[in-house]
Amino acid sequence: MSDCTSHTSEANASIGRMSRPEAFTQNIDVSTLVDSDGGLIDRSIYTETSIYAQEQRRIFARSWLFLAHTSQFKKPGDFFTTFMGEDPIIVTMDKTKTIRAYLNSCRHRGVRLCRADAGATKMFTCTYHGWSFDLAGALQSVPNEKAYPEDFDRKQWGLIEVPNVQSYKGLIFGNWDKDAQSLEENLGDMRYYMDAMLDRDPEGTEVMGGVMKWTLEGNWKLAAEQFATDWYHVNMSHASALMVLSPTGRGPKAEIAATPGRQFGSENGHGAGFPTHPKSRFDARPVHEYYDYEALRERLGDAAVEGPMTTGHATVFPNFSYLPVNGSIRVWHPKGPDKMEVWAWVLVDKSMPDEVKDAQRLYNLRTFGPSGIFEADDGENWSEIQAISHGFVTNNVPLNFQMGIGSERNDGTYPGQTSELYSDAAGRAFYRHWSKQMNTPAWHERTEQA
C-alpha cells in the first residue's frame, strides 16, 4: 500500500458470478426522505431495515472506509481485524511490507478466518477444515486435497482482497471499488482540515495503546452526522462536563461558550467544525505547553492553528470521525439500523515525549473514552433518538436541519464552502451525499447489469 497504489487478488474475479435473489438487490428511492435544500430529514432513514440493507450495498460497498493506522504494522505478518460496513476484514502487512486487506472469511465454508483482534502470523489458517492462506491471500494448503476434482485450482480460491487500499498521512482506508476516485481526490478540501491534526509533526502520528470498543443503541448516521456538523449541542448536552473542566467550576466564560467559528461541508459528505476563539483549547495542559505555536503557524498557517487545530470535530464520510485536540479517532461500525459499535484510538504526534503522550492518553480517556464525561452525553442522546423512532406518528414527523441555510460561502480564509460554527450546513451536505449515493447504482450493480 502507498498513498496512490492499489492491489487486487486474482480470486476477486469470482465475485458476483452467481445471481442474487431480488430481496438482496431491491433498492428504495430515498430522494423523498432527504430534503437537503430545505433542511428536512425523514427519520425513517434511521430505522428502516430495507434502507439499512441498501446502505451496505451502496454506501459501505463503494466508499473509502477507515481500516487502521500505519503504526499498527511494523513487520510482515502483523495484522489487525476490523469491518467495512458489516463485512469482516483482515488488514495485514505482506512480505514486501505492503499493507493489504482481505475479507475475513474462509473460501471453503465461510468461517471467520482470523478471530484475533490483532497480532502477528505467517499464515492465516481456518480452524474449521484447515485451509491455509499466506500473507498475499493465496491458498497454500488444503487438507485431503486429492479428494477434490482434477480441475480444482488453488489460484481460484484465494482470499477475496479489498482491491483499493490507500493511505493519507498514516490513516489507511479501503474501498471495494477498484475504479473509485482516489482517496486524496475524494477527500479534496477535507485534507486541509485533517492536516491540522495529522501534520503537526514532521515525523507524523502514531496510535497509542490498543483500540477501545463499546456498543451503543443508535443508528450509525446519528454519530457520524453529529461529528460532522453539530457544535450546537455542546453548551447544553455537555454543560456539566464544561463545568468540571473550567478553572472556576462554573463553566466557560460567555465569550468562549458563544465562540465564533466556521463549519466546512464537502460535496462528498465530509464535514468539520471548529471554534476560532483563542482560548477554545480544552486540552491537557502538558500537551498545550508542549506545542510551539509559532512553529506550527509556520508549518500549517495562522488560520489552521486558530481554527481546525482547536477544539473542533470532523467526519470523513461515511463513518470515520476525529477530534483534533484530544487525538481521538474513531469509526462508527454499523451493526443493524438500531445499533453501532464505536472503535476509538488515541492518536499522538510521534515526536512527543512519553510523558506528553501519556497526558494525551489520559485526557482522551477522561473526555471521550468509553466512560468519558463528554462521550457519555453523546451516547445518551443518540440512544434516546433511536428509542422512540419506531413509532408510526413519530416516523411521520420530519427532523429539522435548517440552521444556517444560505450561509454557506467561500469565506476567503478556509478552503471549500464554509458556514458559521452554529449551523447544520455540514449535516445537510452529509445527507445530500448519502442520498445521492443511495440512489446511484454502485460498481457491483454495474457489473451485474453488464
TrEMBL record:
Enzyme kind, highest EC tier: oxidoreductase
Pfam families per record: Rieske, Ring_hydroxyl_A
PROSITE patterns assigned: RIESKE, RING_HYDROXYL_ALPHA
Enzyme Commission no: 1.14.12.19
Gene3D superfamilies: Naphthalene 1,2-dioxygenase Alpha Subunit, Chain A, domain 1, Rieske [2Fe-2S] iron-sulphur domain
Keyword line: 2Fe-2S, Aromatic hydrocarbons catabolism, Dioxygenase, Iron, Iron-sulfur, Metal-binding, NAD, Oxidoreductase
Source organism, top-level taxon: Bacteria
Protein name, as recorded: 3-phenylpropionate/trans-cinnamate dioxygenase alpha subunit
Biological source species: Glutamicibacter protophormiae (Brevibacterium protophormiae)
